[in-house]
Write a structure and sequence with these properties.
Two copies of one chain form a homodimer. By secondary structure, the first copy, chain A, is α+β, with helices and mostly antiparallel strands. The first copy, chain A, folds into two domains: 146 residues, Creatine Amidinohydrolase, Chain A, domain 1; 225 residues, Creatine Amidinohydrolase, CATH 3.90.230. Chain A is 35% helix and 21% strand. The first copy, chain A, contains eleven helices and 17 strands. In chain A, strands 4-3-2-1-5-6 form a six-stranded mixed sheet, sandwiched between helices. Chain A is globular and about 70 Å long. Chains A and B meet through helix 3, helix 6 and helix 9 of A and helix 3, helix 6 and helix 9 of B.
């Protein structure tokens, strides 16, 4: 479905070059998995699971980038990355930072200004770099975040597609569900429906029924769905690294008057916040607006954030919608909006849709209208 | 199956106290997910997926430990951890390191000697800690590794159980497989069999057929199994955080004379290396022994390592069996032995079994005898 070698079209190189120029950087060293994936197009699974096995992209302001990886990933990189200059180190025999230093020396970067990820590099690797190569190092974590945050059209299309398939999978799985099914069985059914729609795998799955809905990030368990139960899912599939991250609410049989009222108030505030998203407002303003919309309806927003952006391979990314984030929304950003509402000791509500910020407002890319009612599950 | 609140019995507190005393440490701050999981008994999923959201265990030489987590994980921690003193921070409002400093101040740890994980703490958090609280900081990454490496009986039992169930799942799935099935379908079948055996989820799944076997860590794809194909899997399930990590070889129909010969030579060297494991030998000696056993049979060992330990929640852990690791094997250690053998541009072989190091040798905990022949898949 996805032509992996075309990945350069998915990089916002124009924004990257502009950011490098504005920061006066001669090069940036990307090392967090979401950044190396974004810049190289190759997803190196073990970079995530084996912490010391770094993969790095050295992106100079002038010239072509270099990709530094462990030699056992060489064939994967040849297949997936568009970067031609790939350099490999032998694990345990050479440190990846040591190879990075070699490459920077070849490139004549001594004494130049180099951006690094201080929020990813460990203290040990950081010291090895600073002691081994003389340069003017600057934090570039936020710079790389800003580049990834403004999406290329191909990225928007692929992430939207992942969400649309995920919603279809949830609805198909829940249509086949009835009272008596365990959370685990329902979760497996959703996973199977996602895989059936071409996903390479499941990124995350939260599924909780009844009083279990109050636990954040609960793994599906043995509890069986019963009439009157709420059902909450927050699930994501992975299509070539383009992930979905979507939440929907269901109810088994007839909702109680109480849950109808709670859901109605919550969803009104949710929809109002969807419509508040747009260019120029800050993440904190969106959070505060949502909190006021909750309050107007006599309910309380207690979540620490109410949404986030996302990229290929990544999880929650900035702009994260929390009350201390003054970052402004810009055209081209994607936001997964997801305020949660804990109504009682036994009931929590959660919806999550995908929104593209445009120059004159927003485009909601998922079927938010369908959430007017909770999805009905058979008794 | 697993009584989560009993987790303190799964901690080698005797070894931890001895290591703290020997290093002259007044406290150690555990922050890598495998360490906080080990010490607290609570698995905080988002600690892995959301990098800045630290969970930390402050373990003092005197007195009880403190568990520092993001407030949205509080209910999970109350359910899963045996640690009574839990302190929470509000994400984005307070830094986790800032809360750690508060707790260390309360504990009167100013100026004392404190172990930290320099190979996990990022440069940014590391600086925040050193600038915010005056103490004599020492690297404690290896100290914590050594504690986790010597298993408690309950850990051995649970990890063995995970492996045994995984082998049964592979065999059941492959018995239902025949030529024409795609790698994805076979992988799903294995995952379903693992879940059926009580797993909470799949930790990793590599499955490759035919010429795909040569790629390390390949995700299962659309390729269909054909007569004569080799089939290679390296798969792990998760039972309450006790993970399996097991590799097995199959062949669809009759193996070729070439692959029979290659597998035979590889397996002889493998079995010989299994029997070489024991207390007192170093990781490097095991690697070198295996390389010699390969060489004797006219085949080449090119893998950077040939095995590793593992713990609750973790991936590859020390002692990792690579040629530069002088760490000695000790009774109570678990080793997943897994040399791989790339025989040609189209064929790679891989077996992986679990071994307990004992005071007088070893106990192989998985059914290595059953690998005398590759598992036969129907044509």
């Amino acid at each position: 479905m996805i032509e992996l070698k075309s990945a350069r079209d998915l990089i916002n190189t124009e924004r990257l070059q502009r950011e490098l120029a504005e920061a006066g950087l001669d090069a940036v060293v990307a090392v967090a998995p979401e950044n190396t994936y974004y810049l190289s197009g190759a997803y190196i699974r073990t970079q995530v699971s084996i912490r010391d096995r770094l993969a790095l992209v050295l992106w100079p302001r002038q010239g072509e980038p270099t990709f530094i990886v462990c030699n056992i990933e060489e064939s994967l990189v040849a297949r997936e990355s568009w970067i031609g200059d790939v350099r490999t180190y032998v694990e345990f025999a050479q440190s990846p930072v040591n190879l990075l230093i070699e490459v920077m020396r070849e490139r004549g970067l001594q004494g130049s200004r180099i951006g690094i990820e201080r929020r990813f590099l460990t203290a040990e690797y950081h010291d090895e770099l600073l002691e081994g190569f003389q340069a003017d190092y600057r934090p570039a974590d936020q710079l790389l975040e800003r580049v990834r945050a403004i999406k290329m059209p191909g990225e928007v299309e692929r992430i939207r597609d992942a969400f649309v398939r995920t919603e279809a999978a949830i609805r198909a799985a829940w249509a086949a569900t009835r009272a008596g099914d365990s959370e685990k069985v329902i979760a497996e059914r959703m996973s199977a429906e996602i895989t059936e729609r071409g996903a390479d795998g499941i990124r995350h799955v939260t599924l909780a029924s009844g009083e279990n809905t109050i636990h954040a990030h609960r793994r599906p368990g043995e509890r069986r769905l019963a009439p009157g139960d709420l059902l909450l899912t927050d699930i994501g599939g992975n299509w070539g690294g383009f992930n979905s991250d979507m939440a929907r609410m269901g109810v088994c049989g007839e909702p109680t008057a109480e849950s109808l009222k709670e859901y109605g108030a919550y969803r009104e505030a949710y929809v109002d916040t969807l419509r508040f998203l747009g260019p120029g407002v800050t993440a904190a303003e969106v959070f505060n607006h949502c909190a006021r919309e909750f309050e107007k309806r006599g309910i309380a927003l207690r979540a620490p954030h109410i949404g986030h952006s996302l990229s290929r391979g990544g999880g929650h990314e900035n702009p994260i919608l929390h009350p201390f984030n003054e970052q402004r929304l810009e055209p081209g950003m994607l936001i997964a909006l997801e305020p949660t509402f804990q109504a009682s000791e036994t009931r929590r509500y959660h919806l999550e849709d995908l929104v593209l910020i445009t120059s004159d407002g927003r485009e909601i890319l998922t079927d938010w209208q369908s959430t007017a009612d909770m999805i009905r599950l058979a008794t």
